[in-house]
Amino acid sequence: MTGPRHDPDMIRPYVRTGGQNRPSRDVRLETVLIAASGPTERLGPDARRVMRLFAGGRGGLAVADIAAALELPPSTVRILVSSLMDSGHLTSPAPVQEGRPGLDLLEEVLRGLRELV
Amino acid sequence: MDSANWSDQPAVHYLAPAVTRSAKIVVAGAFGVGKTTFVGSVSEVTPLRMEEPITQASVGVDDLRGTPHKTTTTVAMDFGRIHLLDDRLVLYLFGTPGQTRFRPLWEGLTEGALGALVLADARDLEGSHEVLSLLEEQQTPYAVAINVFPDAPRYPLHEVRQALALDPDTPLAECDARDRRSCVYALITLIEHLTARHAPAPLVEPRP
């Protein structure tokens, strides 16, 4: 692998996330996020890196996309993102449904996949 | 994945503005079974990689100083995604290693997942038992697809079903992980199964 890498052991996740070790809300790997508003000066370095991805309104990203783009562990990104949602910096156009996915979502995915073949 | 594909600042692919919903399917299986190939065949972006460090206490080693040995393993997960229904819906596919030692990772992966597609290699069906146990333990519904490697022998599916000890209603299909159409059909088989599980039970409730 080329390019600079963060050694995940160098900084413990709870340091990266300002002491939190679990997300404050139900944020999943596939949760889609878009930028809302709010000043970013007071955010920690990793939270600012997350927000920089959303600068310029280029579109939404899911938690997994953020983890891949910033080379951060997905567990860390879930916590960062939940804090950024709490502070109003990020919002989700596709809010998480509680529990197991419902029949309507399954039917939509099925319809979408059938359109491909 | 070829290391030459990695650059300092990998291109970020943003989602379509029309996206209002997202869903995820776990593509699970033993090492080398073709998970990333499958994800790459379906995905509209080159599979991306996430890395999660997992700290575990060493098994079977007692430290005389009273502090258990801890080892950190980094688990790599490749994932892809595809926009569906005129970009209103985005489906994520997470390739997931099937070893029990990665259990801590599985909760975050399977939570909220539609279900799992288990890829298996007919030459090493034994290797799939661990992932099937994990899914059953987590009550994640699944279907199984045999990745038809060109040099692998073909076995009758009823024998494969028996060797994997699958429930009679668990779908078992064959697919070619290199072929997009074949992979999409395997996913359709899974979702049809999941949809059928949602069918309302016959109304036999007693009247008040």
Describe the protein's topology:
The complex is a heterodimer of chains A (117) and B (208).
Chain A (H helix, E strand, L loop, with lengths): L12 H4 L15 E4 L9 H9 L7 E2 H8 L3 H13 L3 E2 L11 H12 L3
Antiparallel strand pairs in A: 1-2, 1-3
Helix pairs in contact in A: 3-4
Chain B lengths: L20 E9 L5 H8 L5 E10 L12 E15 L4 E9 L5 H8 L4 E6 L8 H9 L4 E6 L9 H7 L8 E4 L4 H19 L10
Largest sheet of chain A: 3 strands, antiparallel
| Rg over C-alpha atoms of chain B, rounded to the nearest angstrom | 19 Å
Percentage of residues in strands of chain A: 5-15%
Poorly predicted runs of 5 or more residues of chain A: none
Shape of chain B: globular
Share of residues in strands of chain B: 25-35%
Structural commentary:
The complex is a heterodimer of chains A (117) and B (208). Chain A is globular, with a radius of gyration of 16 Å. Chain A has one domain (13-114): Arc Repressor Mutant, subunit A. Chain A has 117 residues and is mostly helical. Chain A has helices spanning 13-16, 45-53, 63-70, 74-86, 103-114; strands spanning 32-35, 61-62, 90-91. Chain A is built from five helices and three strands, in the order H-E-H-E-H-H-E-H. Chain B has a single domain (15-49, 77-198), classed as Rossmann fold (3-Layer(aba) Sandwich). Helices cover 25% and strands 28% of the residues of chain B. Chain B has five helices and seven strands. Chain B has helices at 35-42, 103-110, 129-137, 157-163, 180-198; strands at 21-29, 48-57, 70-84, 89-97, 115-120, 142-147, 172-175. A seven-stranded mixed β-sheet of chain B has the order 2-3-4-1-5-6-7, sandwiched between helices. The chains are: A mainly alpha (117), B alpha/beta (208). Chains A and B meet through strand 2, helix 3, helix 4 and helix 5 of A and strand 1, strand 2, strand 3, strand 4 and helix 5 of B.
